[in-house]
Design brief:
The chain has a domain at 8-96: Double Stranded RNA Binding Domain (2-Layer Sandwich), CATH 3.30.160.20. 42% of the residues lie in helices and 13% in strands. The protein contains 4 helices and 3 strands. It has helices spanning 24-28, 47-57, 77-96, 109-128, and strands at residues 12-16, 32-38, 66-71. The termini are far apart.
């Protein structure tokens, strides 16, 4: 498993007004966190890994190569900042995941035999349902 460690100085946070319920508190506090992280200027990944990440998340990148993640799930600014970091880590883990290659195998002799016997039994059952021809 690949460990993802992005230096905190590469993460750019801004705080904006939150959406949704919360009454007057929503209108007065900047509790929603917006994380902006530039993939291309990051020193956390090699060029090969950056290319792999780019291939998976290119629809979520801005023209400058930034990934923008907004969180206003919590009423607290620190919790929203932690939520943004967690979402970024999950996004990068999904982008860097490489599935195992499937190894083609042949069916065993017994499984082939059982399959063919089952087909014969089913065929005989269907033939017994037909009209008898004289």
């Amino acid at each position: 498993m690949l460990s993802i460690e992005i230096p905190f100085h590469e993460l750019d946070f801004t705080y904006v007004r939150s959406r949704g319920p919360g009454g007057q508190n929503v209108n007065r506090t900047n509790s929603a966190a917006v994380l902006r992280w530039n993939l291309f200027s990051s020193g956390a990944f090699s060029e090969e890994l950056k290319g792999r990440i780019y291939g998976k998340v290119k629809n979520q990148l801005t023209e400058d190569g930034d990934i923008i993640i907004r969180s206003d799930v919590h009423r607290d600014q620190d919790q929203n900042r932690s939520e943004c970091i967690k979402r970024l880590q999950e996004l990068l883990k999904r982008a860097l995941f490489v599935p195992k290659k499937r190894v083609a195998t042949k069916p065993t002799r017994s499984s082939v035999r059982k399959r063919l016997e089952g087909k014969k039994v089913r065929s005989e059952t269907k033939q017994n349902r037909q009209k008898v021809r004289l």
